[in-house]
Amino acid sequence: MQSSPDLLFKALADPSRRALFERLCLEGEQTVGALTAGAGISQPAVSKHLGILKQAGLVQGRDEGRQTHYSAQQRALAPLVDWTGRMNRFWEARFDDLEDLLKRMDQ
Amino acid sequence: MQSSPDLLFKALADPSRRALFERLCLEGEQTVGALTAGAGISQPAVSKHLGILKQAGLVQGRDEGRQTHYSAQQRALAPLVDWTGRMNRFWEARFDDLEDLLKRMDQ
DNA sequence: CATATTCATAACTAAATAGTTATGGGATTA
DNA sequence: TAATCCCATAACTATTTAGTTATGAATATG
Question: What is the C-alpha R_g of chain A?
Fold first, then answer.
């Protein structure tokens, strides 16, 4: 699933969700039960967070019997990287303009 | 001001705040009045958003007479870039492990 | 000095959100 | 089949939050 920066920022703004996503990135695929274990919140809360992460395209669920294995969806962060890159680029462009200006003033 | 990923994500999760920050990145320094003009929300709302962006280290205010000029604070995005980089790195590490495993299984 | 302008803060309201407990459906196990 | 386990959803609550209007402080202008 493709996701706009808006959904991504909103999904990652919550500490519990970010922690879940980090765990999936660092430790790999996990069941809801395993994720609930170290989360400090109830299982329904974890499920709801995973739903939001999934809707943002950040995670993926794989049903296996009665348990669901969740994993991080790597490419989902791309729009974030793009966005930060864009902001940086424009800033540098303005900085270059300033440098140009200063150079021209020097002459 | 230094900022943790948490403050950054929270600050940038709101569309109005992100729009303000983008304008400051793309168009450079602006007064509150100028920012309010194209924002679609009231001046107090803009001021409040700017306060939150400032607390997250994303913008900087410069008093000049009765108006305040705000500008984007470039380095503030660094923790975000770091964070996304970390997540990517771990994912790639797991991917490398998988490749290693497959190679070893091949032999 | 009197008036107008610019911004920030206070006080309030409506909506969104993150958590809870309760429940039920589907899959395993005895 | 009966009991158990895993997860998702429903229903509710408390808190946070994004917006509003009102106001005031500081600066500029007539």
Answer: 20
